[in-house]
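Preliminary data (for renewal application), zinc ion complex.
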Amino acid sequence: MQRERISENVYWFQSEVYAQVTAGVIVGPQWAVVVDTLAMPEESKQIRQFVTETIGVPIRYLINTHSHADHAWGNCYFPNATIIAHTLCAKNLKESGIEALEATKKQNPAYQNTEIVLPHLTFAHGEMTLKIGKKNLIILLTPGHSADGISVFVEEDRVLFAGDAFMAIPQLNESHYQQSIDVIRKIGDMGLENIVQGHGDIILRGEIEEAVQENITYIENIHEIARKATRRRNPADYLNDFDIESSGKSRVYLGGLAEQLHKRNLIWMFKQVVAAEGLPKSDDEYEDEPEEDDFEDMLQSVDQMDVESLNANSNDDFYPDEDDFEEDSD
Ligand SMILES: [Zn+2]
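Predicted structure:
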């Protein structure tokens, strides 16, 4: 696990084992606030130890930026903290997190002692403010990656813990893609010193504009590709031609999971476009020539795309099945 001090009494953690997921700590004179838990129990415990032993203050609040495993499953390792989250985050953890954790336990003994702990204090409208020493923490709604997304703004330092509303590669998930774009733009307009992304490295002030533009362009590119795919008889073949670099992102992001995440995004967006605009109803709406038995082929290839829930409340979030995709030919 990496640790860095971002500003006075504000710390950042990044996992070295899982998708560069991040967490944060804001330390006050008497107690501290933790933002997210990281993915592995050992990592959650290391954050707790750092705060309670190295710094030497208790953890009074833990904020979950959303319900996904890599941000909220470690709640049980902060037993004395009041947990704050979006109302939907508590609902998601209760309705799917508990079951997903039980399934994960059967496959990964590291989670044997993990239990889902539901947030105690939730909200769904407006903002929440938490005063810690001289600093104001403003907790705001940032839906996009997930409908239950919240971010933590350290007002005095102009640091935003953005959760997965801002990532090295946007992960399109539940909300309309335009909502992801709107939130990314809103974050870009906040006049921040640092964006702490849910996954990836800290974005410094001078890098924010470029990062915002890169993410918005990426989402718009994916949308365009997905739209064109709906006018192809074999959309899966078409989508497979667009690797991560062709969409303006590097494949080294997120500990090498970038390409998988990207393909997930393409499939997700394709389904969104089909749901919104439908598939061609007549032959002349296609942009390519018919081949023998093409309609069957197309139906089949759409079927193959029906990967399991893209809103995985589990650590599988970043690991689509290998056989969902064709191998790159190079
Ligand atoms: Zn995440």
